[in-house]
Structure formats: structure tokens, C-alpha cells
């Protein structure tokens, strides 16, 4: 009886899991689900693959056959012997002109390069607020350091500029708390007083024999000029834009009227018109010897232009805030500057980030418009001296414009990725 | 080469009265630097090389003026101007002299209130076509698409030429010379028209220059020369006679190689007057006696400058043609130095 068990078979261990069917796993599954899920998708996949093949089969030989070491387009053609290939030699021979312009002294390239590295350090605490706040001290000093590095000349000029700003900050700190208007006007007066006295104290010819050789604005160029214009104008236009946006919402008719007229006028005029005014018309209005630097004129015009756009973007942010926020600020007994600083602007600016970034990216690309007023920015360098003016490189289109596009793409994509990170970081709604 | 000057015309017409300040020579001397307006980049005429040094036919004129006035050919600030900004730059006083292959026309001389100080290159508008098109004369271009730089005198000449010959064309408007080349090579137009010198320079850079021909017709007169503001005749004289000195030097056989030797005195009184060993020509201009000698020493006489920048041995490869001395059948004819 015991020899025979009534149960025929009992498994003492579980069956090991078998691998999923081949078409339900790994690459095959992914392909089936994403590329070949039905016949329309399959067709599109095949068409896309063909297009990618066509593009790559042209592009890759062009890049791989590329010539990097010749000294003219004619030599490139000789080296290529009729094969299809790029002539990247123009980049290796003229990279310095594309990046720094053709007039910047070549033994001084370290100066703008250093200024660029410093810019990354200076801008970091502004962009990433988890970084130690002490780094902001460097950010405050940076404009003056960069000015001195790029233009060179006497160190007195940036020091005077810095002292003027410091005096303005001091006056505003002393009086602005109690009386905003007094502090504001006093700060401007103090800054100009320091600047005028300081400029008179700098002896004539102080730029001669200065430790860093003086480089006039006209000698700046290349991508450096785009970066300088972009960074300066964006950083100046955001505070100005906030002020304009608040001014437009003001209850004071004069301020409101001025802001509205300014914004509507500037937005109604093409940037290129403003640049022409900056380059040729302003010299009619200034006295002949008061030669305001062309770079400064362009910065002023571009800043005003983008400030008007930033103002409208921020106005959108302000309008999007529920009225309750303003009322809450009032009911807490906050005065106008406090309410704006503590409650309204932090929320309005957060809403406005995508719009501001949009304006910033647009402005950065618009800096290439200065090429039409004979400033040799990256596009001006390519259009003028390299493509138009040199017998060696006349006709190298794709390589040069591709290089320019690549530089701009890197910067603009970086800005866009930063803004997305910032939006995620500032998100306070809980999912 | 002759971009729109509407902007210039507007501003200049309204404001020229205040801008024409006398005493450019004094300004230049006080500044110790000549501000010379040139092209932003045109092969052979004005362009910065790989080291950032300005080179070219127009640039050489600027350097000669600087040498004559300031004694140093490197004391020039080259201010690049586009076709749109060049006239305002000159009228507003931003530049002292404009040497930017600018065509001498009635309205620019009279209406825009400038003073052309001579001609350093006699040009004319031509047509370039691909050989495959099988066209041998511009008059066969009936119905052709034509690449043309907008707002230039070439655009107006083109319209005149086709109207005069009673044939039709379709313009393809283009902003710059390099874009025009690209469009032409890509087949966007049957023919490209601009100054014949520009066509030669353009064709020289093509992958296969033999596949393109420049048609024999020259449809316009384009005398290119340096210009200054109206109202400062002393300064205009200096620019005019510096250019004449370069031209006369070629006629008289004064070159950069022998100018030092000849300036110690020769048997030819005109050379002596030119180089300042006789007479007081420099003094009359408000300069010193050796002004012309210095101008010639910079890069030689007119012929040497021509050969170095745009002559047959350069990529531009232009023959002297109209720009030969009058003794050799050309139009260059410097008035006597006396």
C-alpha cells in the first residue's frame, strides 16, 4: 500500500521561467512596437531610413573627404582631385578671424578667452542659485574685469566706472529705503559725478604703455562680438524690461504714458532701422568731437529694442497673476516695492521665463544684424573679408556657414536647455 | 559696387550744410591718422588678409595719401563701409576720404555734395554666361534671367541696355557679390552682370573658369575713384594730386625701386618738380616737398599698384585696357606737375 502513492506526480520545485518569445523582447520588440507596428508605420520607417541614407551618403563623404591643411580653395580642389569633399582648411586658416575678428591683435587672444572663462564663472551663481552666494561678489566685479581684459588700456577706466556704480549703490542704499525717488535720482547723480570727476583725473594718453595694450572697439569682431553684444544686451535689457513692465502698469499717468510710448515705438520699428540710426544718424546729432563709441551705440539700441520685448513678456506674467495676490500683498501692509519684490515679481517672472528666454535667444541671433552696419561680427567676417574679399576662399560657402550655424546652435540650445531646467527647478505645483 | 544711396541721399540732402566742416587736413594731422573708407571685402580692391592687414587697389590709394600727408603709410584707419553706409559715413565726417570703387556719377557729385578727385579705375558693366548657354553677345540674351545686385547703378544700366535693344529679361535680385556667385553657379540665373573687373575676379575663383565666358559687350561707363566731401577744396586737392602723382610717376618712369635715386635730382625737370627737388609744389598743397616721393615709395607708381593687386599675374587677372597710360592707348592722363 505504501509502495503506491495515489498522487502520480508532485513537482517538488517550480518550473524555471522560460525566456519570453523572441518577438516579445529586446530590440525586436522595440522595433515591432515603435517602427513596424502596422503597415503605415512600416512604410514610413522604410522611407525615413532611405532619406537618412541619402543624406548621410552625401554628408559623410563630404566631411570625411574634408581637406584641413591647404591654404586656398584652389589647392583644396587640387588635393580632392574631383572627389566630393569639404574644404575645411578655411576654418583652420581663418579660425582666429572667425572667432575674434581680423583686427584683434593675435598675441592678445588670451584676453577675450580669459574674459569668456570668467563669464562662465560670473554667470554661474546667477543661473544656478544653489551655488554659494559669495560667488556673486565676482559677478559684480565681472563687467569691469571683462571690460579691462577685452579693451585693455589704462586700468583707471574700469576702476572709475566701478567707483561710480559703487557710489550709486551707496547713495541708493542710504536714501532709497525711505524715499525711492530720492534714492534713485541721487544714485544717478552720484554715479555721473564720480564718472565725470574720474574721467577728468585720468591723464590724456593713459592708454599708451598700459599694461594691457589698448584695443579700440573697431578692432573687435568675429563670434566674440556676437557673444559680447548678446551677453551685454540680454543682461541689461532684463532689468530695464522689468522696470518698463512695472511702469506700464503704474497708476502715475506720466510714467505710464512714457513707458507705453517707448514700448510701442520701439516694437514698431525694425531692429535694423535702429542699428542704422546708431551707426550713421547719431553722428549727425552729436558734436563732431564727441565720438561715442560705435559699440556703445549698438549696445544701447539693441538693449532698448529687446527691453521693449522683455517688458511685454513680463507684463504678460504680471497679468497672469490672480488679483488675489496683489490684494494679499496689500492686506499684509506691504508697500509697493516690498509687494513687488516679495510677492508679485517672483511669481510673474517665473511665469515669464519661457518668453524671456525666447527673447534672449532671438536677440542673440539678431546680433548678426550688425554686419550690415560694417561691424565684423561672425556673419560680417564671412560675408565681407573671407567670402567676398579673399581670393583664396571666395566660394567656400557650406563650410563657413555650417561653422557659423554650429556655433550659434551650441549657444542657443544651451540657453534653451537651461530654461527648461529652470522651469523644472522652480515648479511649485505638485504632481 | 554702386549700392543704393537712397539713405545717403536723404540724410545728406537734409544735413549736409552742417556736416561740411573745413580743415580736413588739420583734422587729419591733429589725429595723426587718416580715416579711409573702403569696401568690406572685394578681391583685389580692398580686403584684409589672413593677418588682418588691409590689401588692395583702393587700399593702396589710402596708404599713399597717408604717406603724403602724415609721412607714414601705416597711419591709416581703414573703415569698412557697405554700399548703404558709405555716403553717410563720408558726409558725417566719420571718414576723410572714401576709396571704395565708387562710380563717379552726376548725382553723386552734384546732388549728394561730394567731390570726386579723379579716376583710379575705368570700369564698365559686363555679362558672364556659362559656355553651355551658347550665347556670344549680350544682345542674344532675350528672355534671360539675370542675377543683379539690388540698388546699384548696374541695375539701372541693365534696364537701360535691355530697353535700348528692345529685348526682355527677368531680374533675380541679390544682395551681395558672393551670394550672386552662389546663385549663378546654382543655375538660378542664366547670366550674372556686374562691373567687368568684378566678373573677372569672380570667374577666377570658380571651380572650372573655362566653362564660363564674359561677353564682349560693355554696357556702361563706370569710372571708379576716390571722393571727399564738398566744401574743403584744399583737402580735395591733396587727394586729387596724390592720385595724379601715382599716375604721373608711371608715365615718367618713376618706380618704387628708383624713386630714392631719382629724388637726388635728375635731368628731367618734371620729375624734379614731382619729387620735390625743384619748385614748391608741396608747399602749395600745404605739405612738405617730399610728399609725392613718400606716396610713390609706399607701393610704387600706379602701374606697380595695378600689377600687384589686380593685374594679369594676380587671381583677379585684369588687363590694363582703358587703364593704360594715354601714351599706350589708355585713358590715364595726369595733368602736368608745374
Fold blueprint:
The complex is a heterodimer of chains A (431) and B (338).
Chain A lengths: L25 H9 L4 H26 L8 H8 L8 H12 L9 H18 L8 H16 L4 H20 L4 H22 L20 H27 L4 H15 L3 H15 L8 H27 L2 H9 L4 H31 L11 H11 L8 H30 L5
Chain B lengths: L5 H14 L4 H8 L2 E6 L7 E2 L5 E2 L1 H14 L5 E6 L4 H6 L5 E7 L2 H5 L3 E3 L4 E3 L1 E6 L13 E6 L3 H12 L4 E6 L2 H9 L5 E5 H9 L7 E3 L7 E8 L3 H20 L6 H4 L6 H7 L5 H5 L5 H9 L2 H8 L29
Parallel strand pairs in B: 1-4, 1-5, 9-10, 9-11
Antiparallel strand pairs in B: 2-3, 5-13, 6-13, 7-13, 8-11, 8-12
Helix pairs in contact in B: 3-9, 3-13, 9-13
Pfam family, one (chain B): SBP_bac_3
Organism (chain B): Tritonibacter multivorans
Protein name (chain B): General L-amino acid-binding periplasmic protein AapJ
Structural description of this entry:
The complex is a heterodimer of chains A (431) and B (338). Chain A has 431 residues and is mainly alpha-helical. Among the domains of chain A are: 59 residues, no CATH class; 208 residues, MetI-like fold (Orthogonal Bundle). In chain A, 69% of the residues lie in helices and 0% in strands. Chain A has 16 helices and no strands. The longest helix of chain A is centred in the C-terminal third of the chain and has 31 residues. Chain B folds into two domains: 200 residues, Periplasmic binding protein-like II (D-Maltodextrin-Binding Protein, domain 2, 3-Layer(aba) Sandwich), CATH 3.40.190.10; 97 residues, Periplasmic binding protein-like II (D-Maltodextrin-Binding Protein, domain 2, 3-Layer(aba) Sandwich). Chain B is built from 14 helices and 13 strands. In chain B, the strands form three sheets. In chain B, strands 1, 4, 5, 6, 7 and 13 form a six-stranded mixed β-sheet that branches. A five-stranded mixed β-sheet of chain B has the order 10-9-11-8-12. In chain B, helix 3 packs across helix 9, helix 3 runs antiparallel to helix 13 and helix 9 packs across helix 13. Chain B is α/β, with parallel strands linked by helices and 338 residues long. At the A-B interface, helix 4, helix 11 and helix 15 of A face helix 1, strand 2, strand 4, helix 7 and helix 8 of B.
Amino acid at each position: 500500500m505504501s509502495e503506491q502513492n495515489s498522487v502520480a506526480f508532485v513537482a517538488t520545485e517550480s518550473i524555471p521561467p522560460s525566456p519570453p518569445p523572441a518577438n516579445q523582447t529586446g530590440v525586436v520588440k522595440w522595433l515591432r512596437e515603435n517602427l513596424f507596428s502596422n503597415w503605415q508605420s512600416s512604410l514610413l520607417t522604410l522611407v525615413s531610413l532611405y532619406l537618412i541614407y541619402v543624406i548621410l551618403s552625401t554628408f559623410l563623404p563630404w566631411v570625411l573627404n574634408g581637406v584641413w591643411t591647404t591654404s586656398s580653395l584652389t589647392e583644396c580642389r587640387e588635393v580632392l582631385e574631383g572627389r566630393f569633399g569639404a574644404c575645411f582648411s578655411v576654418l583652420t586658416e581663418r579660425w582666429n578671424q572667425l572667432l575674434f575678428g581680423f583686427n584683434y591683435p593675435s598675441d592678445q587672444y588670451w584676453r577675450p578667452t580669459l574674459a569668456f572663462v570668467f563669464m562662465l564663472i560670473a554667470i554661474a551663481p546667477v543661473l544656478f542659485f544653489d551655488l554659494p552666494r559669495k560667488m556673486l561678489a565676482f559677478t559684480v566685479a565681472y563687467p569691469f574685469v571683462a571690460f579691462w581684459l577685452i579693451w585693455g588700456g589704462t586700468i583707471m577706466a574700469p576702476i572709475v566706472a566701478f567707483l561710480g556704480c559703487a557710489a550709486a549703490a551707496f547713495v541708493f542704499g542710504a536714501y532709497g529705503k525711505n524715499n525711492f525717488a530720492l534714492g534713485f535720482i541721487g544714485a544717478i547723480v552720484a554715479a555721473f559725478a564720480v564718472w565725470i570727476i574720474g574721467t577728468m583725473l585720468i591723464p590724456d594718453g593713459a592708454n599708451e604703455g598700459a599694461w594691457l595694450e589698448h584695443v579700440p572697439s573697431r578692432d573687435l569682431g568675429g563670434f566674440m562680438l556676437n557673444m559680447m553684444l548678446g551677453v551685454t544686451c540680454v543682461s541689461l535689457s532684463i532689468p530695464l524690461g522689468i522696470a518698463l513692465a512695472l511702469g506700464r502698469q503704474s497708476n502715475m499717468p506720466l510714467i505710464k504714458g512714457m513707458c507705453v510710448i517707448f514700448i510701442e515705438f520701439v516694437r514698431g520699428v525694425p531692429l535694423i532701422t535702429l542699428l542704422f540710426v546708431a551707426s550713421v544718424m547719431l553722428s549727425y546729432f552729436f558734436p563732431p568731437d564727441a565720438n561715442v563709441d560705435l559699440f556703445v551705440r549698438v549696445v544701447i539700441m539693441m538693449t532698448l529694442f529687446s527691453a521693449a520685448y522683455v517688458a511685454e513678456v513680463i507684463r504678460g506674467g504680471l497679468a497672469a497673476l490672480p488679483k488675489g495676490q496683489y490684494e494679499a500683498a496689500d492686506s499684509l501692509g506691504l508697500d509697493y516695492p516690498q509687494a513687488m519684490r516679495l510677492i508679485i515679481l517672483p511669481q510673474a517672472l517665473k511665469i515669464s521665463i519661457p518668453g524671456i528666454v525666447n527673447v534672449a535667444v532671438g536677440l542673440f541671433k539678431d546680433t548678426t544684424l550688425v554686419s550690415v552696419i560694417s561691424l565684423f561680427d561672425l556673419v560680417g567676417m564671412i560675408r565681407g573679408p573671407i567670402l567676398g574679399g579673399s581670393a583664396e576662399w571666395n566660394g567656400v560657402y557650406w563650410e563657413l556657414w555650417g561653422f557659423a550655424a554650429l556655433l550659434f546652435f551650441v549657444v542657443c540650445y544651451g540657453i534653451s536647455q537651461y530654461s527648461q531646467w529652470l522651469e523644472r527647478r522652480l515648479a511649485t505645483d505638485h504632481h | 559696387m554702386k549700392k543704393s544711396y537712397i539713405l545717403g541721399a536723404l540724410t545728406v540732402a537734409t544735413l549736409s550744410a552742417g556736416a561740411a566742416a573745413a580743415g580736413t587736413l588739420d583734422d587729419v594731422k591733429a589725429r595723426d591718422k587718416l580715416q579711409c573708407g573702403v569696401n568690406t571685402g572685394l578681391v583685389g580692391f580692398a580686403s584684409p588678409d589672413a593677418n588682418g592687414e588691409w590689401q588692395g587697389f583702393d587700399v593702396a590709394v589710402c596708404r599713399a595719401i597717408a604717406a603724403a600727408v602724415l609721412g607714414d603709410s601705416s597711419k591709416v584707419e581703414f573703415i569698412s563701409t557697405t554700399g548703404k553706409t558709405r555716403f553717410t559715413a563720408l558726409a558725417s565726417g566719420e571718414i576723410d576720404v572714401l576709396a571704395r570703387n565708387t562710380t563717379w556719377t552726376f548725382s553723386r557729385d552734384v546732388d549728394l555734395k561730394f567731390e570726386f578727385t579723379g579716376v583710379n579705375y575705368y570700369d564698365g558693366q559686363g555679362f558672364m554666361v556659362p559656355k553651355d548657354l551658347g550665347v556670344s553677345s549680350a544682345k542674344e540674351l532675350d528672355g534671360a534671367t539675370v542675377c543683379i545686385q539690388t540698388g546699384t547703378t548696374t541695375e539701372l544700366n541693365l534696364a537701360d541696355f535691355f530697353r535700348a535693344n528692345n529685348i526682355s529679361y527677368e531680374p533675380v535680385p541679390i544682395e551681395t557679390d558672393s551670394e550672386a556667385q552662389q546663385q549663378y553657379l546654382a543655375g538660378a540665373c542664366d547670366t550674372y552682370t556686374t562691373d567687368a573687373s568684378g566678373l573677372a575676379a569672380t570667374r577666377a575663383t570658380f571651380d572650372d573658369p573655362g566653362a564660363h565666358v564674359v561677353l564682349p559687350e560693355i554696357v556702361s561707363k563706370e569710372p571708379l575713384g576716390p571722393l571727399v566731401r564738398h566744401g574743403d577744396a584744399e583737402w580735395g586737392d591733396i587727394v586729387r594730386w596724390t592720385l595724379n602723382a601715382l599716375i604721373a610717376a608711371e608715365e615718367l618712369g618713376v618706380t618704387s625701386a628708383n624713386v630714392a635715386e631719382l629724388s637726388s635730382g635728375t635731368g628731367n625737370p618734371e620729375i624734379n618738380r614731382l619729387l620735390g627737388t625743384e619748385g614748391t609744389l608741396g608747399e602749395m598743397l600745404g605739405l612738405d616737398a617730399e610728399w609725392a616721393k613718400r606716396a610713390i615709395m609706399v607701393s610704387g607708381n600706379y602701374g606697380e599698384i595695378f600689377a600687384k593687386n589686380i593685374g594679369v599675374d594676380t587671381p583677379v587677372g585684369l588687363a590694363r585696357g582703358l587703364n593704360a597710360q594715354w601714351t599706350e592707348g589708355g585713358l590715364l592722363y595726369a595733368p602736368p606737375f608745374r
